[in-house]
Amino acid sequence: MHPQSSLALAKRLLLFGRHYRRSLKLDHSYAGEYAYLRKIMTRLQIAKGFVVDVAASDGVGSSSTLGFFRDVNWRGLAVEMDPDKFSKLAFVYAGFTNAKLARSRVTPSNVSMLMRGFEVPPDFELLNLDIDSYDLYVIDELLKGSFRPKVISMEINEKIPPPIFFTVNYDDAHYWRGDHFFGCSLTAAASVVKAHGYILESVQYNNAVFVRADVAGTLFDDLSSDSAYDVGYRNKADRTKLFPWNADVDGLLALSTPDAIKSLNELFAKYDGKYTLRTLSAPDTRTCSKTGK
Questions:
Q1: Quick one: which of 33, 86, 240, 248 could link to 29 by a disulfide (CB 3.0–4.6 Å)?
Q2: Element holding 92 (H helix, E strand)
Q3: pLDDT tens digit sequence for 229-288
């Protein structure tokens, strides 16, 4: 690295660290996701354990897991691919002796190997997944293996309502381009994750929260995608304030399912062949093939 580049990076990290130290608020998540996950753990009587954050970004901004890493009762693994974001993550988390860090891209092919390489317990407590692309294939492959997290918080493409099944198909060369084309719909996430023995506990705006059925017991209801979506996103009073970037697609929520699918196909026209989009009108549980079919 060029000396000037190194100096610029050092300055950015210093400013980032100063900002972090001046703002030691407990919850750095975007819409209170960390506080909600803490409530889930409290209700499950889980006061310590192992957390895995896949696509942890800089570890601070909008982080749903920072509060766990700052708690000495918890340990875990934070994974981030972007070099600049990882530099910030490593700078802040250097003080957390309970945190392991991995600069790695996560795919369906390497997710289980990555977990084993960092000695993640098979029965770990919390998984946070937010890779903005083929998340559905990553979670499916992980749960097909030996890993069974007790609680999963998984980002969904919140603008796509039930009963629409949508997912970005797995393509090793794909990356998020900052538009509406990313991840999977709630219907897709629920159909795949529930098939592995989980209940849909809630939707928290753009995150679906699942609890392993044997852990949930009678403490939580298994919600339908429709009811969870209505409560957790569609009918949220502050939804448009928190998600102003969805204003141009908010009309999807008022369309019939066939019309919404037609509109989405038009919206994603430049991604033709790179996604799966269909109606899922009844409860469905399935695993997904790597072709997206």
A1: 33
A2: helix 83-93
A3: 999 999 999 999 999 999 999 999 999 999 999 999 999 999 999 999 999 865 544 445
Cα-Cα-Cα-Cα dihedral sign, residues 227, 284, 199, 194: negative
Q: Are 183 and 156 in contact (CB under 8 A)?
A: yes
Q: Is 284 among the domain residues?
A: no
- 74 domain residue, yes or no: yes
CATH of the domain at 164: 3.40.50.150
- Report whether the peptide linkage leading into residue 163 is cis, meaning its omega lies within 30 degrees of zero: yes
Closest by CA to 234, choosing from 256, 258, 210, 250, is 250
Domain-embedded: residue 288: no
Number of domains in the chain: 1
Name the one residue in this structure whose structure tokens are 């996560």: 106
Residue 292 lies in a domain: no
Structure tokens that stand for 281 in this block: 């009108």
Report the alpha-carbon distance of residue 70 to residue 99 in Å, rounded: 9
The single-letter DSSP state of residue 203 is E
- Residue showing tokens 């981030």: 80
Q: The whole model's pTM is what?
A: 0.89
Q: Do 192 and 287 form a contact (C-beta atoms < 8 A)?
A: yes
Q: Which two tokens stand for residue 91?
A: 């700078």
C-beta separation of 126 from 77 below 8 A: no
Classify residue 263 by burial, with Cβ atoms within 10 Å: 0-12, 13-18, 19+: middle
Residue 275's nearest CA partner among 163, 144, 137 is: 137
Virtual CA dihedral for 203, 186, 168, 158, nearest 10 degrees? -50
State which residues form the domain around 75.
3-279
Q: Give the model confidence (pLDDT) of 190-234 as tens digits.
A: 999 999 999 999 999 999 999 999 999 999 999 999 999 999 999
8 A C-beta contact, residue 218 and residue 181: no
- In eight-state DSSP terms, residue 30 is S
